[in-house]
């Protein structure tokens, strides 16, 4: 088998979770390794931010991020692991210090929290931990 275009099949965690849930609920019961892999992967994905995402929230977030000249992989990382600090954006966006201003980083964080409200709860928990130490 030959891979012609490696970038065609990039899926978000939400899309993978959705597909695996459909496989799990399918009429045919999977046996053996496929059932185990499906179960374990779903169990992991349900503990990540994608559990709270919707197709609409992802689509709207991507539209809002369109103006920041981010690559597909950078957008995918922002969707899969929504950042809550500027440092996380620096880790996800290649050469972010040259490509993005501080204001743009703050705008991206605002877009993420606007489209993924569950991120606000995580952010509040992190702030409580920082204040408690």
Automatic annotation (TrEMBL):
One of its GO terms (cellular component) is plasma membrane. Belongs to the eukaryotic RPC9 RNA polymerase subunit family. It is found in: Cell membrane; Nucleus. Its main location: membrane. GO terms for biological process: transcription initiation at RNA polymerase III promoter. This is DNA-directed RNA polymerase III subunit RPC9. It is a peripheral membrane protein. The keyword Cell membrane applies. Component of the RNA polymerase III complex consisting of 17 subunits: a ten-subunit horseshoe-shaped catalytic core composed of POLR3A/RPC1, POLR3B/RPC2, POLR1C/RPAC1, POLR1D/RPAC2, POLR3K/RPC10, POLR2E/RPABC1, POLR2F/RPABC2, POLR2H/RPABC3, POLR2K/RPABC4 and POLR2L/RPABC5; a mobile stalk composed of two subunits POLR3H/RPC8 and CRCP/RPC9, protruding from the core and functioning primarily in transcription initiation; and additional subunits homologous to general transcription factors of the RNA polymerase II machinery, POLR3C/RPC3-POLR3F/RPC6-POLR3G/RPC7 heterotrimer required for transcription initiation and POLR3D/RPC4-POLR3E/RPC5 heterodimer involved in both transcription initiation and termination. The keyword Metal-binding does not apply. SUPFAM superfamilies: HRDC-like (SSF47819). Accessory protein for the calcitonin gene-related peptide (CGRP) receptor. It modulates CGRP responsiveness in a variety of tissues. DNA-dependent RNA polymerase catalyzes the transcription of DNA into RNA using the four ribonucleoside triphosphates as substrates. Specific peripheric component of RNA polymerase III (Pol III) which synthesizes small non-coding RNAs including 5S rRNA, snRNAs, tRNAs and miRNAs from at least 500 distinct genomic loci. With POLR3H/RPC8 forms a mobile stalk that protrudes from Pol III core and functions primarily in transcription initiation. Pol III plays a key role in sensing and limiting infection by intracellular bacteria and DNA viruses. One of its GO terms (molecular function) is nucleotide binding. Residues 1-119 form the RNA polymerase Rpb4/RPC9 core domain. InterPro entries: HRDC-like_sf, RNA_pol_Rpb4/RPC9_core, Rpb4/RPC9, Rpb4/RPC9_sf, RPC9. It comes from Agrilus planipennis (Emerald ash borer). Keywords: Cell membrane, DNA-directed RNA polymerase, Membrane, Nucleus, Transcription.
């Amino acid at each position: 088998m030959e891979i012609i275009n490696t970038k065609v099949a990039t899926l978000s965690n939400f899309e993978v979770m959705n597909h695996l849930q459909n496989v799990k609920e399918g009429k045919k019961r999977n046996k053996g390794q496929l059932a185990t892999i499906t179960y374990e992967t779903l169990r992991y994905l349900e503990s990540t931010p994608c559990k709270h995402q919707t197709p609409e929230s992802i689509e709207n977030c991507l539209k809002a991020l369109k103006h920041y000249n981010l690559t597909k992989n950078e957008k995918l990382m922002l969707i899969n692991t929504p950042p809550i600090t500027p440092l996380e954006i620096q880790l996800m966006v290649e050469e972010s210090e040259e490509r993005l201003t501080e204001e743009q980083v703050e705008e991206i964080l605002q877009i993420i929290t606007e489209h993924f409200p569950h991120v606000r709860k995580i952010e509040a928990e992190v702030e409580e931990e920082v204040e408690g130490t």
